[in-house]
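#structure-requests
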Amino acid sequence: MQVEVTWVDGMEFRANSDSGHSWNMDASVEVGGNDRGPRPTELLLSAVGGCTGIDIVSILNKMQQPLKGLRIMVSGERAEEHPRRFTKVKLHYVVSGDGLSHDRVARAVQLSVEKYCSVLSSLNAEVSYDFEIAQS
């Protein structure tokens, strides 16, 4: 998996994924940005919600549960000191569907959060990284 991120101007960057999608990111006006896109940290929280959501829909489909709606509110607390990493992530799930089993929904959420969601797992893991610098 690869994403290319290119500086636009100010604090704005454009990301292009190898799956053919693109999006902008920017900083707030208070820190020198132009507020023309979400913050990278907001995208990280949205990735957590999207990742667990995909898992939950898939698991509930396999359980033949009549899911009609799923909304996920994701909030995060960050450390005061740099690099200001997330120290806590809270997920609030709102599900709808006639005849949904609360126990099966709870099991689907548990499986996603504890076993399947690679984004959440990456937040807890020690990730190695490497970098190189080239001039154009």
